[in-house]
Amino acid sequence: MLPLYFLRQISLRFNTPSQPYWCFVFVSAARSFTNVGIKLLDPQHWEVQYKLSLDLYEMSASVSCMRGDIVTMSTCLDEIVSHAKTFNDNLKASELLVQLLVSQSKFNDATTNCLAILKEFEEVFPSDLSLDLVRSELSKTKILLQNVTNLDQIKLLPRMTNREKLNSMKFLNALGKVSKHSKPMLIPLIACRIVSLTMDFGFCQDSIYGLALIGYCMVSIVCTPLIDVIPLCCILNCPHKNWKNSFFTPKSMNLLSTSAKLARH
Predict the structure, then answer these.
(1) N or C: which end of the chain has fewer CB within 10 A?
(2) Domain span at residue 150?
(3) 156 and 81 in one domain?
């Protein structure tokens, strides 16, 4: 399908900052093909062409997100939410909705959306957060990781394949990024949950967020000696594609500092 081809090319081009023009060309082409596809759908397409309709509206919302066209993106997401038959069919739209809400600085709504999705995956967070609760969860995670002494042990974890857990990790990652603005005290709990899922179900790309974050939280909140969390931080040197430099950016370090400061007060 042509729009899918263009979207794949876009993802490749975004890793090449020196060619922003081609990014724009590919996004524009993908949007044109997707819009034509939507116009060619049957008038009763949600009944007779459900899967195709879902794919096209998801593509249109994704491309609109890339272009910063929040009006079209919002319209497409409304269509999907109104007609999705199952929870899983609505997941991509929910993921994009979080991005839309963040772009509009609606961080509380984005957080609420993530928490609602995670609840469906039985990943529930307490509504009343306290420093004692945070320290308790971090202490449990410290015990879980007490036998992790080097990078090789983490690299030997199996790859996560459980689709439900992979989706949970994706929304935990998204929740961590918006919690800075809405519920910073959630951040250590999110790190603990990501680490727990990683140890129980295997490693995935979203694991890097929780493993690096838990190392920082251990040092800044429960005062764990730095030497004990070096194996977690060293995972940043893993050669796996897209894992290097994926966490310790200025923005993410600012997020970590926020949670640490709150925990100390």
Answers:
(1) C
(2) 131-264
(3) no
